[in-house]
Amino acid sequence: MSVTPVTHSVPMASNRLPPDPGTRTPPGMILDRLARGATRAARITHTEHLPPRIGSHADWPAQIRPEVIDAIRSAGIDRPWAHQARTSEHALRGESVVVATGTASGKSLAYLAPVLSTLLDGSEAPNGRGTTGLYLAPTKALAADQRRAVRELAAPLGTAIRPAVYDGDTPVEEREWVRQYANYVLTNPDMLHRGILPAHPRWSSFLRALRYVVIDECHTYRGVFGSHVAQVIRRLRRICARYGSEPVFLLASATAAEPAEAASRLTGLPVAEITQDTSPRGELVFALWEPPLTELHGEQGAPVRRTATAETADLLTDLTVQGVRTVAFVRSRRGAELIALIAQERLAEVDRSLPARVAAYRGGYLPEERRALERALHSGELLGLAATTALELGVDVSGLDAVVIAGYPGTRASLWQQAGRAGRSGQGALAVLVARDDPLDTYLVHHPEALFDQPVESTVLDPDNPYVLAPHLCAAASELPLTEADFPLFGPETAGLLPQLEAASLLRRRTAAWHWTRRERAADLTDIRGQGGSPVQVVEAGTGRLLGTVDAAAAHTAVHDGAVHLHQGRSYLVRRLDLEDNVALVEEANPPYSTTARDTTAISVLETDTEVPWGDARLCFGSVEVTNQVVSFLRRKLITGEVLGETKLDLPPRTLRTRAVWWTVTEDQLDAARINPEQLGGALHAAEHASIGMLPLFATCDRWDIGGVSVPLHPDTLLPTVFVYDGHPGGAGFAERAFHTAAAWLTATRGAIAACECEAGCPSCIQSPKCGNGNDPLHKRGAIRLLGELLRGVPEA
Looking at 638-739, which runs of residues are DSSP E strands? Predict the structure, then answer.
């Protein structure tokens, strides 16, 4: 175990002074207790100590109303941190600004102070309603949490501030009141897209008075989702201009690279940035934890590590027994349910009162279920929570002592965001990253400098993606007829897309404007979460009860016939997936296994945009067509991950036009790398798997956002070729980022394979959990030699 002091601007504290450090168990002591025993201690590969930081105060700008300053003082905050004051200054000058500082650094107060002050000014205006503000959050939980915070902060201001949530959970009878009387509306991009903008005449008085638009957790708007949100924001700006308003955009982000550039791309406006975090921070102890190898063997006889799920459940159990308030972040809904269930079972063996103090939290729950869990976490009734990223984003869970992260969350920004959930009152905190049996996770726990000595990633989004832009042009035309004056707002692809939309009978040109002429709602053409298609309803076969929904894109892999589906600690087996009616019929069951879908993929090159010689090799970027089909699923033991069997499936293939990066090698290079024809397929396949696993280190993606294909002789290139593509129509910017960072990306890929201790390949280096070919063939040493030969041709910078 190594200890390296660093001084990163990551997790932080609120404006309140930290509590007496003697009132909590120091994070180092909590970690020592978790690591007791020789086998436990050996699992910690690295410990990073982030020292406490002293805060730097400033004064509020003179334009902030004294009543607002008094209300802030009543909340226990005497003076702002310097970054809060600077953010407010930009806002009051009418300049859009993004504040990108660490978790719990007081970003909410940085934008709330000018917003509340301006709303208070507006409440005294003779026209009655005065000014309004709009708040956008990526999740319903965050919007609800912010409403609570605004109500508490603005309570001394009386009825001048009227916050209200307007989302899918808002009762119909409340919606009219929100439209007519609320002056600070909290919603999400989905509701803005489907509910507010299409009905803008009913919102006219609110939009006419709109002064500020707050976009919280803006770093989450990346890839296809971020590209959709960027176009929704452009539609909002267009409608506001129609009513004579030009709102200022106030954005808040976790620490991010080039936040002003990303915020400008999101909003289409110039945006100033505040990046220096001047808040204090308690000590953070951050441990990297690698589960041990088991005696089991997986595909092709590869060694198998204990799962991150089982390891995280153990840690959550131990922390709960210690009385340490903990959130365990899990990547999947099923994983969150499973960790909570395992922890509850083990806690019951210790004390029958403890299982009730651990729960799961994820998307797909009913609104009342989510709110009850949030209240229980706030009150301390819950000691442990296994949560998906639905709880990652800004929800105030002050008082936590520890965070356990089950698997690298895909980006360093998300990692620090999750780690920052603990220690939010300024006290010391513990964070533990538990590695999955995966190339990237294994690489990171043995290369801590890749986490602790590197800046966070840039946010990748492409609003000009025609697959994204086209439905928003239709939605915009249905809101107000489109004219050439709108072209600069929606981007350079607009003029070329409109004739195509006319040809498809989606728009009709009359004189100088394009109109939406269909009866159906144009906003229903697209799902801004980038999933495509209607969600699949999960229905209990015996009762007809709706359990929840699954995104259309995930249905083939998540709720195929025979799949295990978890909901609130209960297991269900999918009896039938009806793709015509978008329904998965399930029955409650308790199988001793989980299921993992397998698929096959073919790819063809449509157009090569860029080609760069790497010696005799070629690195390319362009458009491709991918044909994918889920062909089977594996049954795995719940705790060990041991494969019990495989079952074939008969699902239709799906076609995707997207963007890809690919590289080719020549026969001479294969000879130089000592790769014979029998080894070639395995070497290419291994390099493909490992490169997909490593790409999230260089682009803001998850390995499930991208796919890959490797072919010993591809018909379009006539050479051995490896493709890595975006898993979204039109692309999401990930493959383009891979193209531009290819030298560093593929160098890290080769290093990850070479550093793995296994002999012939395992899930920690070259095996993929979603390989449709059963991870066969794979050739570890051939992949190392092949990548080495490829990288020898990298041109000098």
Answer: 643-648, 654-664, 706-711, 721-726
Question: What 3-state class would DSSP assign to 405?
Answer: strand
CA angle 74, 77, 82 (to 5 degrees): 145
Chain centroid to CA 483: how far? Answer: 35
Rounded Cα gap, residues 112 and 118, in angstroms: 10
Instruction: Give me the numbers of helices (H) and strands (E) for the chain, helices first please.
Output: 26, 30
Q: When comparing pLDDT for 427 and 386, which is higher?
A: 386
Q: Residue 567: beta bridge partners?
A: 570
Q: How far is CA 523 from the centre of its chain?
A: 24
Could you count the other beta carbons within 10 Å of the beta carbon of residue 339? 31
Residue partners of 223: CB distance under 8 A and separation at least 6: 460, 461, 530, 700, 701, 705, 728, 732, 733, 734
Q: What is the DSSP letter of 565?
A: E
Per-residue pLDDT reduced to its tens digit, 453-499: 877 777 778 888 888 899 999 999 999 999 999 999 999 999 999 99
Q: Give the type of residue at 399.
A: G
412, 451 in Cβ contact below 8 A?
A: yes
**What is the model's pTM?**
0.77
340: left (phi over 0), alpha (psi -120 to 50) or beta: alpha
Contact 566, 558 (CB under 8 A): no
What is the C-alpha separation between 364 and 389, in angstroms, rounded? 12
Can you read off the two tokens belonging to residue 690?
């490992």
- The overall average pLDDT reported for the chain is 88
